[in-house]
Amino acid sequence: MSGAAGGAAAAAAAAAARAARMRQEEEDMTGYNASDLEGWEFKIVRSNTRKFKNREAVRQLCEEEAPAGWEMLEKFDDSRIRFKRKIEHRTRDQHLQIDPYRSEVGIGQGQMVTLILGAIVLLGGLVIWLATMAKQ
Description:
The protein is built from four helices and four strands; from the N terminus they run ααβαβββα. It has a four-stranded mixed beta sheet with strand order 2-3-1-4, with no helix packed on it. The model has no long low-confidence stretch (mean pLDDT 84). It has two domains: 47 residues; 74 residues, no CATH class. The longest helix has 27 residues. The radius of gyration is 20 Å and the shape is elongated. By secondary structure, the chain is α+β, with helices and mostly antiparallel strands.
């Protein structure tokens, strides 16, 4: 396996492992009992670029989610915010400008992986090119 391909595979594996750790952490942090769930639904909105470290971005997200009835419960970290809403708000979903069940904002995870892998391949090509030029 070439250096660039090996680096790309390692980056993809690291991203997958990070996503798995975050899902497990969310499961551990969101323990509900039956009374917590009655009449409510929950979602976690994610940002792959740590967008929520910016207070204005958090405010904007809450403002966008409010017409669908979503209320912010907690900010897990700079990448994840948990919301809840009464299930009766579902009746208004067809009139909304956004997908009330969206769970990502900004660049998606697939796009992020593609960008990282592209950068690794580009960097590998540049290193090979520079090595070739140095030998001449």
